Amino acid sequence: MTGIFGVSIQGLFGQLLVGLLNGSFYAILSLGLAIIFGLLNIINFAHGAQYMMGAFLAWIGMTYLGVSYWWALLLSPLLVGAFGMLLERGMLKRLYKLDHLYGLLLTFGLALIVEGLFRYRFGISGESYPVTELLEGGENLGFMFLPKYRVWVVVASLVVCFGTWYVIERTKLGSYLRAGTENPELLQAFGINVPLMITLTYGYGVALAAFAGVLAAPIFNVNPVMGSNLIITVFAVVVVGGMGSILGSIVTGIGLGLIEGIVKSGMIANLLSAAFDSVPVAGSIVYPIKLLFSPEASAVTIFVIMAIVLLVRPAGLFGRER
Q: What is the Cα–Cα distance from 110 to 113, expressed in whole angstroms?
């Protein structure tokens, strides 16, 4: 069978697709976190719970109200985003002048409460959400099978991520948002309603998490811990990209997802074996590195990269020293 460094073509491209899919989720979730931290200075630990709420609202809409996937993709982010705006107005706005730690503790507590309520009502076994009829099946490319729904998730995520980056970095609205973080009093003097702008910004960041949740619903079981399982990895992505960096969160999310997929395929472990196993001393030195980049340890790859980046560049790849 044809292969690259001991990995079959089908296996390698299959893992690359999985990596690209995971990277799309990392990118869109870390983008929401980066917007909230970069523009509002809040470390939103409730982001995973808001991602789970988006998936559950889609499932509830389909199960009890007959809401289609396409309507869920619109309505769930709007509803969860509105919940986020109420949260910002009722609680978070009181913490803006305090240390980041207060916002982190509050959102962490809220995440535990929301997750606990969903566990109490729905249990933890998980609920399935069928792929919409239009995106069922896939294409046989000869060297791999390409599911339509996964392609849709990657394309939709990229469009939303880079569309958001364009609005924030290249439009007048984005310049108002950035100015609001630097000098809100001056911006308010020009007639801009800064408190409303902050509330809408937080709501949009939360809506991004819910949007990712709806995209994830047909791929993963919808369950109360789906957000908490992912949020630590997403925070690692944000740290590697640079806290608050919009472009950094997108590029790093997709890049780390792909690296995770390549590690899972076993190609890096095979490359290290081919290069060093024939040299006794070098092979023994490289052995611990091979373990870290083995397929079984692929879940920790992102954290290994995060540790290396923090040692070399503490502000992250795209971050700025504050």
A: 5
Give the C-alpha separation, 42 to 92, whole Å: 8
> What are phi and psi for residue 127, nearest 5 degrees?
-125, 140
CA gap 130, 128 in Å, rounded = 6
Cβ atoms < 10 Å from Cβ of 222: 25
- Residue 41, phi-psi category: left (phi > 0), alpha (psi -120 to 50), beta (remainder): left
Whole-angstrom CA distances from 51 to 26, 42, 176, 288, 297 are: 12, 17, 27, 35, 26
Digit-coded pLDDT (tens) for 236-258: 999 999 887 888 999 999 999 99
Is the torsion defined by CA of 56, 60, 66, 71 positive or negative?
negative
The model's pLDDT over 52-79, given as tens digits with 9 standing for 90+, comes to: 999 999 999 999 999 999 999 999 999 9
What type of residue is 137? G
CA distance 148 to 151: 5
Predicted TM-score (pTM) of the model is 0.91
Q: Do 18 and 264 touch, CB atoms closer than 8 A?
A: yes
Rounded alpha-carbon distances, angstroms, from residue 161 to 13, 36, 119, 156, 258: 24, 14, 31, 9, 17
Q: Return d(Cα 195, Cα 201) in angstroms, integer.
A: 10
Rounded Cα gap, residues 222 and 51, in angstroms: 11
Percentage of the chain beyond pLDDT 90 is: 49
Residue 4 is inside which H or E element, if any? strand 3-4
The rounded distance, in Å, linking the Cα atoms of 160 and 256 is 19
